[in-house]
Amino acid sequence: MSLFGSLFSSVSGLTAQSKALSMISDNVANVNTTAYRSASPQFANMVTRAAHTLTYSPGGVRSYTAYSMEKQGLIQSSSSPTDVALSGNGLFVVNDQVNGPSEQFYTRAGSFEPDFFGNLRTPSGFYLQGWVLNVDENIVDINALETVNVRQIQGVATATTAIELGANLNADDKTPSLQVNGALNDYAAGNMADWTVNNANGTKPAFTRDIRIYDSLGRPKLVTVGFLKDATDANGLRWHTEVYAKPGDIDTGVHPNGRLAAGTVTFNPNGSLAGWNITPEGGAAVASPDRPAIPINWIAAAGAENSVLDLNFGEPGATNGLTQFASPNNIAFVNQNGAEVGELNGVMIDELGFVKASFTNGEERRLYRLPVATFPNPAALDPRSGNVYAATDLAGQFNLRFAGVGGAGTIIPSSLESSNVDIADEFTKMIITQRAYSASSKIISTADSMLDELIRTVR
Question: What gap in Å lies between CA 246 and CA 251, rounded to an integer?
Fold first, then answer.
Protein backbone atom coordinates (compact mmCIF):
# COMPACT_ATOMS: atom_id res chain seq x y z
CA MET A 1 0.00 0.00 0.00
CA SER A 2 2.86 2.39 0.78
CA LEU A 3 4.22 2.08 -2.79
CA PHE A 4 0.88 3.08 -4.24
CA GLY A 5 0.66 5.81 -1.61
CA SER A 6 4.01 7.17 -2.74
CA LEU A 7 2.74 7.23 -6.32
CA PHE A 8 -0.35 9.20 -5.31
CA SER A 9 1.72 11.50 -3.14
CA SER A 10 4.13 12.20 -6.01
CA VAL A 11 1.25 12.86 -8.38
CA SER A 12 -0.07 15.45 -5.93
CA GLY A 13 3.41 16.96 -5.95
CA LEU A 14 3.36 17.15 -9.75
CA THR A 15 -0.08 18.78 -9.62
CA ALA A 16 0.99 21.29 -6.98
CA GLN A 17 4.16 22.26 -8.84
CA SER A 18 2.20 22.55 -12.10
CA LYS A 19 -0.14 25.02 -10.42
CA ALA A 20 2.85 26.89 -9.03
CA LEU A 21 4.33 27.18 -12.51
CA SER A 22 0.97 28.47 -13.77
CA MET A 23 1.07 31.23 -11.16
CA ILE A 24 4.63 32.12 -12.11
CA SER A 25 3.71 32.26 -15.79
CA ASP A 26 0.72 34.52 -15.00
CA ASN A 27 2.97 36.82 -13.00
CA VAL A 28 5.52 37.11 -15.79
CA ALA A 29 2.78 37.63 -18.39
CA ASN A 30 1.32 40.50 -16.32
CA VAL A 31 4.58 42.21 -15.43
CA ASN A 32 3.41 45.33 -17.33
CA THR A 33 -0.24 45.18 -16.24
CA THR A 34 -1.20 48.31 -14.28
CA ALA A 35 -1.29 47.62 -10.51
CA TYR A 36 -1.30 43.83 -11.04
CA ARG A 37 -0.86 41.90 -7.80
CA SER A 38 1.47 38.90 -8.08
CA ALA A 39 0.24 35.46 -7.08
CA SER A 40 2.48 33.35 -4.87
CA PRO A 41 2.17 29.55 -4.64
CA GLN A 42 1.73 28.29 -1.10
CA PHE A 43 1.88 24.63 -0.14
CA ALA A 44 0.30 22.59 2.63
CA ASN A 45 0.76 18.95 3.46
CA MET A 46 -2.11 16.47 3.41
CA VAL A 47 -2.21 13.81 6.13
CA THR A 48 -4.01 10.48 6.00
CA ARG A 49 -4.53 8.75 9.31
CA ALA A 50 -2.67 5.43 9.51
CA ALA A 51 -4.35 2.31 10.87
CA HIS A 52 -1.49 1.79 13.33
CA THR A 53 1.12 4.07 14.81
CA LEU A 54 3.88 1.83 13.47
CA THR A 55 2.81 2.37 9.88
CA TYR A 56 3.00 5.49 7.73
CA SER A 57 0.40 6.47 5.17
CA PRO A 58 1.55 9.22 2.74
CA GLY A 59 -0.93 12.01 2.05
CA GLY A 60 0.81 14.28 -0.44
CA VAL A 61 0.64 18.04 -0.89
CA ARG A 62 -1.81 20.61 -2.04
CA SER A 63 -1.24 24.15 -3.28
CA TYR A 64 -3.19 27.36 -2.92
CA THR A 65 -2.74 30.91 -4.07
CA ALA A 66 -1.76 33.94 -2.00
CA TYR A 67 -1.94 37.41 -3.56
CA SER A 68 0.54 40.07 -2.47
CA MET A 69 -2.11 42.76 -2.08
CA GLU A 70 -0.13 44.84 0.40
CA LYS A 71 3.12 44.90 -1.57
CA GLN A 72 3.41 48.35 -3.18
CA GLY A 73 4.10 48.66 -6.88
CA LEU A 74 6.28 51.39 -8.36
CA ILE A 75 4.47 54.72 -8.92
CA GLN A 76 5.04 56.12 -12.41
CA SER A 77 3.91 59.47 -13.78
CA SER A 78 1.19 59.67 -16.42
CA SER A 79 0.13 62.39 -18.85
CA SER A 80 -3.58 61.84 -18.18
CA PRO A 81 -5.18 64.07 -15.50
CA THR A 82 -7.72 61.33 -14.74
CA ASP A 83 -5.07 58.69 -13.99
CA VAL A 84 -4.49 58.09 -10.29
CA ALA A 85 -2.36 55.76 -8.20
CA LEU A 86 -2.70 54.62 -4.61
CA SER A 87 0.28 54.70 -2.30
CA GLY A 88 -0.53 52.51 0.68
CA ASN A 89 -3.56 50.44 1.58
CA GLY A 90 -6.89 50.39 -0.19
CA LEU A 91 -8.56 50.09 -3.56
CA PHE A 92 -10.75 52.20 -5.81
CA VAL A 93 -14.42 51.26 -6.09
CA VAL A 94 -15.78 50.32 -9.53
CA ASN A 95 -18.98 48.81 -10.95
CA ASP A 96 -19.58 46.65 -13.98
CA GLN A 97 -22.55 48.81 -15.04
CA VAL A 98 -23.21 52.55 -15.15
CA ASN A 99 -26.63 52.42 -13.49
CA GLY A 100 -29.09 49.89 -12.21
CA PRO A 101 -28.36 46.58 -10.49
CA SER A 102 -24.66 45.88 -10.63
CA GLU A 103 -21.92 44.12 -8.73
CA GLN A 104 -19.40 46.24 -6.88
CA PHE A 105 -15.73 45.54 -7.49
CA TYR A 106 -12.43 46.97 -6.32
CA THR A 107 -9.23 47.76 -8.17
CA ARG A 108 -5.78 49.25 -7.72
CA ALA A 109 -5.57 50.08 -11.42
CA GLY A 110 -6.31 53.81 -11.58
CA SER A 111 -6.32 54.28 -15.34
CA PHE A 112 -9.65 56.00 -16.03
CA GLU A 113 -10.87 57.57 -19.26
CA PRO A 114 -14.32 58.96 -20.15
CA ASP A 115 -16.45 56.89 -22.50
CA PHE A 116 -18.76 58.37 -25.15
CA PHE A 117 -21.22 59.44 -22.46
CA GLY A 118 -18.58 60.94 -20.17
CA ASN A 119 -18.47 58.12 -17.61
CA LEU A 120 -14.99 57.44 -16.25
CA ARG A 121 -14.10 53.79 -16.77
CA THR A 122 -11.13 51.44 -16.81
CA PRO A 123 -9.83 49.94 -20.07
CA SER A 124 -11.62 46.73 -19.00
CA GLY A 125 -14.99 48.49 -18.84
CA PHE A 126 -15.48 48.98 -15.09
CA TYR A 127 -16.97 52.32 -14.05
CA LEU A 128 -15.38 54.48 -11.36
CA GLN A 129 -17.60 55.21 -8.35
CA GLY A 130 -17.58 58.32 -6.16
CA TRP A 131 -19.57 60.42 -3.72
CA VAL A 132 -21.60 63.16 -5.44
CA LEU A 133 -20.93 66.71 -4.19
CA ASN A 134 -23.48 69.52 -4.04
CA VAL A 135 -22.89 73.13 -5.10
CA ASP A 136 -21.25 73.79 -1.72
CA GLU A 137 -18.84 70.92 -2.47
CA ASN A 138 -20.20 68.79 0.37
CA ILE A 139 -21.07 65.10 0.00
CA VAL A 140 -24.78 64.69 -0.75
CA ASP A 141 -25.15 61.16 0.69
CA ILE A 142 -22.22 59.41 2.38
CA ASN A 143 -24.01 56.07 1.95
CA ALA A 144 -24.52 56.35 -1.82
CA LEU A 145 -21.96 56.05 -4.60
CA GLU A 146 -22.57 56.99 -8.23
CA THR A 147 -20.68 56.54 -11.46
CA VAL A 148 -18.36 59.50 -12.02
CA ASN A 149 -19.60 61.41 -15.07
CA VAL A 150 -17.65 64.34 -16.49
CA ARG A 151 -19.83 65.24 -19.46
CA GLN A 152 -23.04 66.40 -17.76
CA ILE A 153 -21.29 69.54 -16.55
CA GLN A 154 -22.73 72.95 -17.29
CA GLY A 155 -20.72 76.13 -17.54
CA VAL A 156 -20.43 77.87 -14.19
CA ALA A 157 -20.51 81.49 -13.08
CA THR A 158 -19.45 82.86 -9.71
CA ALA A 159 -21.26 85.83 -8.21
CA THR A 160 -19.01 88.45 -6.65
CA THR A 161 -19.24 88.44 -2.87
CA ALA A 162 -16.09 90.33 -1.89
CA ILE A 163 -14.14 93.36 -3.08
CA GLU A 164 -10.66 94.41 -1.97
CA LEU A 165 -9.50 97.92 -2.79
CA GLY A 166 -6.04 99.35 -2.38
CA ALA A 167 -5.58 103.04 -3.27
CA ASN A 168 -3.82 106.22 -2.21
CA LEU A 169 -5.91 109.32 -1.51
CA ASN A 170 -3.91 112.52 -1.94
CA ALA A 171 -3.27 114.15 1.43
CA ASP A 172 -2.96 117.56 -0.32
CA ASP A 173 -6.38 117.28 -1.96
CA LYS A 174 -8.73 120.23 -1.48
CA THR A 175 -12.45 119.81 -1.02
CA PRO A 176 -14.69 121.92 -3.26
CA SER A 177 -17.30 123.83 -1.29
CA LEU A 178 -20.33 125.86 -2.21
CA GLN A 179 -21.46 129.03 -0.42
CA VAL A 180 -25.25 129.29 -0.21
CA ASN A 181 -26.60 132.42 1.55
CA GLY A 182 -23.18 132.88 3.17
CA ALA A 183 -23.15 129.35 4.67
CA LEU A 184 -20.97 126.41 3.69
CA ASN A 185 -23.04 123.75 1.90
CA ASP A 186 -21.41 120.63 3.33
CA TYR A 187 -21.41 117.17 1.79
CA ALA A 188 -24.46 115.01 2.48
CA ALA A 189 -24.83 111.28 1.90
CA GLY A 190 -25.75 110.64 -1.70
CA ASN A 191 -24.09 113.73 -3.17
CA MET A 192 -21.57 111.70 -5.18
CA ALA A 193 -24.18 109.27 -6.45
CA ASP A 194 -26.44 112.20 -7.38
CA TRP A 195 -23.63 113.84 -9.34
CA THR A 196 -23.04 110.60 -11.24
CA VAL A 197 -26.67 110.48 -12.31
CA ASN A 198 -26.87 114.20 -13.16
CA ASN A 199 -23.71 116.31 -13.20
CA ALA A 200 -25.80 119.37 -12.35
CA ASN A 201 -26.66 117.91 -8.95
CA GLY A 202 -24.66 116.62 -6.04
CA THR A 203 -20.91 116.89 -5.52
CA LYS A 204 -18.25 115.62 -7.87
CA PRO A 205 -16.04 113.03 -6.17
CA ALA A 206 -12.34 113.80 -5.91
CA PHE A 207 -11.47 110.25 -6.88
CA THR A 208 -13.49 107.32 -8.21
CA ARG A 209 -12.86 103.78 -9.29
CA ASP A 210 -15.18 101.61 -11.38
CA ILE A 211 -15.06 97.95 -10.34
CA ARG A 212 -16.36 95.18 -12.56
CA ILE A 213 -18.29 92.58 -10.59
CA TYR A 214 -20.53 89.67 -11.63
CA ASP A 215 -24.07 88.74 -10.71
CA SER A 216 -25.28 85.19 -10.06
CA LEU A 217 -25.77 84.62 -13.81
CA GLY A 218 -22.22 85.66 -14.62
CA ARG A 219 -23.18 88.96 -16.21
CA PRO A 220 -20.69 91.79 -15.65
CA LYS A 221 -21.86 94.83 -13.71
CA LEU A 222 -20.11 98.01 -12.63
CA VAL A 223 -20.05 99.45 -9.14
CA THR A 224 -18.19 102.65 -8.36
CA VAL A 225 -16.38 103.64 -5.20
CA GLY A 226 -16.02 107.41 -4.82
CA PHE A 227 -14.02 109.50 -2.33
CA LEU A 228 -14.32 113.16 -1.33
CA LYS A 229 -12.23 114.87 1.34
CA ASP A 230 -14.20 116.15 4.35
CA ALA A 231 -13.98 119.96 4.38
CA THR A 232 -15.06 120.11 8.02
CA ASP A 233 -12.15 118.00 9.28
CA ALA A 234 -9.48 120.45 10.43
CA ASN A 235 -6.82 117.73 10.46
CA GLY A 236 -7.55 116.66 6.89
CA LEU A 237 -7.64 112.98 7.86
CA ARG A 238 -11.27 112.13 7.03
CA TRP A 239 -12.81 111.34 3.65
CA HIS A 240 -16.39 110.75 2.62
CA THR A 241 -16.93 107.61 0.58
CA GLU A 242 -19.84 106.20 -1.39
CA VAL A 243 -20.46 102.99 -3.25
CA TYR A 244 -22.98 103.25 -6.07
CA ALA A 245 -24.07 101.53 -9.28
CA LYS A 246 -25.92 102.41 -12.45
CA PRO A 247 -29.60 103.03 -11.63
CA GLY A 248 -30.54 101.03 -14.71
CA ASP A 249 -28.95 97.90 -13.19
CA ILE A 250 -30.49 98.01 -9.73
CA ASP A 251 -33.80 98.50 -7.96
CA THR A 252 -33.86 102.26 -7.36
CA GLY A 253 -36.72 101.81 -4.93
CA VAL A 254 -34.19 100.22 -2.62
CA HIS A 255 -31.13 102.14 -3.83
CA PRO A 256 -32.03 105.80 -4.63
CA ASN A 257 -29.95 107.11 -7.55
CA GLY A 258 -28.01 103.84 -7.45
CA ARG A 259 -26.50 104.45 -4.02
CA LEU A 260 -25.45 101.24 -2.24
CA ALA A 261 -23.59 102.54 0.81
CA ALA A 262 -22.14 105.76 2.22
CA GLY A 263 -19.88 106.75 5.10
CA THR A 264 -16.40 107.92 6.03
CA VAL A 265 -12.85 106.61 6.15
CA THR A 266 -10.19 108.15 8.37
CA PHE A 267 -6.42 108.01 8.31
CA ASN A 268 -3.62 108.29 10.83
CA PRO A 269 -1.10 111.16 10.59
CA ASN A 270 1.46 108.68 9.22
CA GLY A 271 -0.79 107.95 6.21
CA SER A 272 -2.01 104.53 7.32
CA LEU A 273 -5.68 103.65 7.48
CA ALA A 274 -7.26 104.43 10.86
CA GLY A 275 -10.73 103.03 10.23
CA TRP A 276 -14.13 103.54 8.68
CA ASN A 277 -17.80 104.01 9.44
CA ILE A 278 -20.00 102.93 6.55
CA THR A 279 -23.75 102.51 6.35
CA PRO A 280 -25.18 100.17 3.69
CA GLU A 281 -28.36 101.54 2.11
CA GLY A 282 -31.27 100.68 4.37
CA GLY A 283 -28.99 99.14 7.00
CA ALA A 284 -27.09 100.04 10.15
CA ALA A 285 -23.71 101.72 10.34
CA VAL A 286 -20.68 99.41 10.43
CA ALA A 287 -17.50 100.64 12.12
CA SER A 288 -14.01 99.19 11.80
CA PRO A 289 -12.64 96.63 12.31
CA ASP A 290 -15.91 95.05 11.12
CA ARG A 291 -16.33 95.18 7.37
CA PRO A 292 -19.61 96.31 5.81
CA ALA A 293 -21.76 93.78 3.96
CA ILE A 294 -23.39 95.78 1.19
CA PRO A 295 -26.63 94.35 -0.28
CA ILE A 296 -27.42 94.91 -3.96
CA ASN A 297 -30.95 94.45 -5.27
CA TRP A 298 -30.69 93.98 -9.03
CA ILE A 299 -33.64 94.92 -11.21
CA ALA A 300 -36.17 92.10 -11.44
CA ALA A 301 -35.90 91.96 -15.24
CA ALA A 302 -32.28 90.82 -14.93
CA GLY A 303 -33.40 87.54 -13.37
CA ALA A 304 -30.33 87.39 -11.13
CA GLU A 305 -30.23 86.74 -7.41
CA ASN A 306 -29.52 89.73 -5.20
CA SER A 307 -25.90 90.13 -4.17
CA VAL A 308 -24.08 90.98 -0.96
CA LEU A 309 -20.61 92.52 -1.18
CA ASP A 310 -17.99 92.33 1.54
CA LEU A 311 -16.06 95.61 1.16
CA ASN A 312 -12.43 95.46 2.32
CA PHE A 313 -10.42 98.70 2.52
CA GLY A 314 -7.52 97.03 4.36
CA GLU A 315 -6.52 96.61 7.99
CA PRO A 316 -6.71 99.53 10.43
CA GLY A 317 -3.22 100.72 11.30
CA ALA A 318 -1.71 99.19 8.16
CA THR A 319 -0.94 100.33 4.63
CA ASN A 320 -2.19 97.22 2.85
CA GLY A 321 -5.35 98.90 1.54
CA LEU A 322 -6.31 102.57 1.57
CA THR A 323 -3.58 105.10 2.40
CA GLN A 324 -3.28 108.89 2.52
CA PHE A 325 0.08 110.21 1.40
CA ALA A 326 1.05 113.45 -0.34
CA SER A 327 1.01 111.91 -3.80
CA PRO A 328 -1.61 111.80 -6.57
CA ASN A 329 -4.74 109.74 -6.17
CA ASN A 330 -4.07 106.32 -7.66
CA ILE A 331 -5.17 102.71 -7.50
CA ALA A 332 -2.76 100.10 -6.15
CA PHE A 333 -4.99 97.06 -6.68
CA VAL A 334 -8.59 95.97 -7.08
CA ASN A 335 -9.62 92.37 -6.38
CA GLN A 336 -13.00 90.70 -6.59
CA ASN A 337 -13.91 87.02 -6.37
CA GLY A 338 -16.58 86.72 -9.08
CA ALA A 339 -16.29 85.24 -12.55
CA GLU A 340 -18.24 85.29 -15.79
CA VAL A 341 -19.75 82.15 -17.25
CA GLY A 342 -17.02 79.69 -18.20
CA GLU A 343 -17.12 76.62 -20.41
CA LEU A 344 -15.66 73.28 -19.38
CA ASN A 345 -11.93 73.24 -20.02
CA GLY A 346 -10.80 69.98 -18.44
CA VAL A 347 -11.24 67.42 -15.67
CA MET A 348 -8.68 66.11 -13.21
CA ILE A 349 -8.45 64.12 -9.97
CA ASP A 350 -6.46 65.68 -7.13
CA GLU A 351 -4.54 64.21 -4.18
CA LEU A 352 -7.59 64.33 -1.91
CA GLY A 353 -9.64 62.29 -4.37
CA PHE A 354 -11.75 65.18 -5.62
CA VAL A 355 -12.81 65.01 -9.25
CA LYS A 356 -12.50 68.65 -10.32
CA ALA A 357 -13.68 70.45 -13.44
CA SER A 358 -11.82 73.54 -14.63
CA PHE A 359 -13.49 76.22 -16.73
CA THR A 360 -12.33 78.82 -19.22
CA ASN A 361 -13.02 81.62 -16.72
CA GLY A 362 -10.37 80.23 -14.38
CA GLU A 363 -12.87 78.76 -11.95
CA GLU A 364 -12.70 75.21 -10.61
CA ARG A 365 -15.52 73.09 -9.26
CA ARG A 366 -15.40 69.87 -7.28
CA LEU A 367 -17.91 67.34 -8.61
CA TYR A 368 -17.17 64.05 -6.84
CA ARG A 369 -14.94 62.64 -4.15
CA LEU A 370 -13.42 59.20 -4.59
CA PRO A 371 -13.59 56.78 -1.66
CA VAL A 372 -10.74 54.41 -0.84
CA ALA A 373 -12.01 50.96 0.17
CA THR A 374 -10.02 49.15 2.85
CA PHE A 375 -10.38 45.52 3.98
CA PRO A 376 -9.15 43.77 7.15
CA ASN A 377 -7.72 40.96 4.99
CA PRO A 378 -7.25 42.20 1.41
CA ALA A 379 -5.24 39.08 0.48
CA ALA A 380 -8.51 37.12 0.63
CA LEU A 381 -10.21 39.18 -2.09
CA ASP A 382 -11.41 37.22 -5.09
CA PRO A 383 -9.55 38.22 -8.29
CA ARG A 384 -11.66 38.63 -11.42
CA SER A 385 -10.87 39.30 -15.06
CA GLY A 386 -10.19 42.94 -15.83
CA ASN A 387 -7.77 43.54 -12.96
CA VAL A 388 -10.55 43.85 -10.38
CA TYR A 389 -11.41 42.05 -7.15
CA ALA A 390 -14.66 40.99 -5.54
CA ALA A 391 -15.32 41.06 -1.81
CA THR A 392 -15.37 37.78 0.14
CA ASP A 393 -16.30 36.81 3.68
CA LEU A 394 -12.66 36.03 4.43
CA ALA A 395 -11.61 39.51 3.29
CA GLY A 396 -13.86 41.02 5.96
CA GLN A 397 -16.20 44.01 5.97
CA PHE A 398 -14.89 46.86 3.85
CA ASN A 399 -14.81 50.52 4.88
CA LEU A 400 -15.00 53.51 2.56
CA ARG A 401 -12.57 56.19 3.70
CA PHE A 402 -11.14 59.49 2.53
CA ALA A 403 -7.70 59.16 0.99
CA GLY A 404 -4.98 59.29 3.64
CA VAL A 405 -7.44 58.90 6.54
CA GLY A 406 -7.96 55.92 8.85
CA GLY A 407 -5.27 53.75 7.31
CA ALA A 408 -6.32 54.39 3.71
CA GLY A 409 -3.56 55.08 1.21
CA THR A 410 -2.89 58.43 -0.38
CA ILE A 411 -3.84 59.29 -3.93
CA ILE A 412 -1.11 60.32 -6.35
CA PRO A 413 -2.61 62.38 -9.23
CA SER A 414 -1.57 61.88 -12.85
CA SER A 415 0.21 58.65 -11.96
CA LEU A 416 -0.21 54.91 -12.31
CA GLU A 417 0.99 52.05 -10.15
CA SER A 418 3.07 49.38 -11.84
CA SER A 419 2.63 45.69 -11.11
CA ASN A 420 4.45 44.43 -8.04
CA VAL A 421 5.94 41.47 -9.92
CA ASP A 422 9.67 40.93 -9.33
CA ILE A 423 11.03 39.18 -12.42
CA ALA A 424 14.19 38.00 -10.66
CA ASP A 425 12.11 36.49 -7.88
CA GLU A 426 9.80 34.81 -10.39
CA PHE A 427 12.69 33.19 -12.26
CA THR A 428 14.15 31.98 -8.98
CA LYS A 429 10.83 30.41 -8.02
CA MET A 430 10.57 28.91 -11.50
CA ILE A 431 13.90 27.10 -11.05
CA ILE A 432 12.84 25.80 -7.63
CA THR A 433 9.48 24.69 -9.04
CA GLN A 434 11.17 22.90 -11.93
CA ARG A 435 13.48 21.02 -9.55
CA ALA A 436 10.58 20.06 -7.28
CA TYR A 437 8.60 18.82 -10.27
CA SER A 438 11.57 16.75 -11.46
CA ALA A 439 11.99 15.30 -7.97
CA SER A 440 8.34 14.22 -7.85
CA SER A 441 8.74 12.65 -11.29
CA LYS A 442 11.82 10.78 -10.07
CA ILE A 443 9.88 9.36 -7.14
CA ILE A 444 7.19 8.09 -9.52
CA SER A 445 9.77 6.37 -11.71
CA THR A 446 11.47 4.91 -8.62
CA ALA A 447 8.17 3.62 -7.22
CA ASP A 448 7.38 2.14 -10.63
CA SER A 449 10.73 0.32 -10.67
CA MET A 450 10.08 -1.04 -7.19
CA LEU A 451 6.63 -2.28 -8.23
CA ASP A 452 8.13 -3.88 -11.31
CA GLU A 453 10.73 -5.57 -9.12
CA LEU A 454 7.96 -6.85 -6.84
CA ILE A 455 6.05 -8.29 -9.79
CA ARG A 456 9.17 -10.06 -11.09
CA THR A 457 9.75 -11.51 -7.62
CA VAL A 458 6.24 -13.00 -7.59
CA ARG A 459 6.84 -14.58 -10.97
Answer: 10
| Local structure of residue 336 (DSSP, 8 states) | E
- If we measure between CA atoms, which residue out of 28, 70, 29, 32 comes closest to residue 419? 32
Q: What are phi and psi of 379, to 5 degrees?
A: -65, -15
The whole-model pTM stands at 0.68
Domain ranges of the chain: 2-71+420-458, 75-152+355-417, 157-342
Cβ-count burial of 333 within 10 angstroms (0-12 exposed, 13-18 middle, 19+ buried)?
Answer: exposed
Rounded CA-CA distance 322/168 in Å is 6
Question: Cis (ω within 30 of 0) for the bond into 289?
Answer: yes
- DSSP strand E in 316-381: where? 322-323, 330-336, 339-342, 344-349, 354-359, 364-369, 372-374
- Residue closest to 7 by CA, chosen among 456, 457, 452: 452
366, exposed or middle or buried, with CB in 10 Å at 0-12, 13-18, 19+? middle
Spatial distance between the Cα atoms of 433 and 19, rounded to a whole number of angstroms: 10
Helix (H, G, I), strand (E, B) or coil at 293: strand
Three-state DSSP at 324 gives coil
What digits encode the pLDDT tens for the residues 87-118?
Answer: 999 999 999 998 866 789 999 999 999 999 99
Contact 291, 164 (CB under 8 A): no
Q: Which residues of 200-217 are buried (b: 16+ CB within 10 A; e: fewer)?
A: eebbebbbbbebebbbbe
pLDDT one-digit tens code per residue, 113-167: 999 999 999 999 999 999 999 988 999 999 999 999 988 777 778 899 999 999 9
| SS3 state at 13 | helix
CATH class of the domain comprising 157-342:
mainly beta
